[in-house]
Amino acid sequence: MATLILGLVTFLGMHSVRIFADDWRTAQRARYGEKAWKLGYTLISLVGFGLIIWGFGMARNDPLVLWSPPVAMRHIASLLTLISFVLLAATYVPRNGIKARLHHPMVLGVTVWAFAHLLANGTLADVILFGSFLVWAKLSYLAARKRDRMAGTRYPAGTMGGTIAAVAAGGVAWMLFAFWLHGLLIGVNPL
Predict the structure, then answer these.
(1) What is the pLDDT of residue 88?
(2) Three-state DSSP class for 174?
(3) Domain tally, the chain
(4) Which range marks the domain in which residue 38 is found?
(5) Last residue of a domain, one of 62, 79, 113
(6) How far is CA 147 from CA 18, 33, 92, 169, in A?
(7) What pLDDT is stored for residue 156 in this prediction?
(8) 176, HSE (Cβ side, Cα atoms, 13 Å)
(9) pLDDT of 80-116, one tens digit each?
(10) Given pLDDT bands bounded at 50, 70 and 90, which one contains residue 27?
(11) Is-contact 61 4, C-beta < 8 A?
(12) Which ranges carry the NnrU domain (predicted)?
């Protein structure tokens, strides 16, 4: 469990710099340059991500079950992860109404993803992993909205075509992951 927690602290800690120390982040980027900052950010994040994967894998070998969710929760989680994938796609598809309305769909997608996994899984490792991501995503979203308000950020209006493309891309990505990649990469077939 310690490896999982160390990975979460490393990965989410790096991703929380903008939430808790945005001025420091700006100073470091100016001091070392954009490329060096991004390289360091990426390397630390990858180390954290690797520790999360390793630590979660070890925790799954000897799980501490806190509760056993009903089978229906897997189906609810599947539906919620579909929404999460659409939100993730909306982050990258230009001029879609989802991003125009929500402004930061990626962290909202992480929020929905984490909540869905908390519904469907009941081990201590699941609570630590997905609960940590849920708290981080909520804090990240609130911080991003605050930055938007302070900067007077305006998002371009979405178009029907962009919105349909975001929903379609998210749906296709969800199908690939739910029906094939989740089992291949995670070892659990959600459907």
Answers:
(1) 97
(2) helix
(3) 2
(4) 1-62
(5) 62
(6) 10, 22, 20, 28
(7) 87
(8) 7
(9) 999 999 999 999 999 999 999 999 999 999 999 999 9
(10) very high
(11) no
(12) 4-190
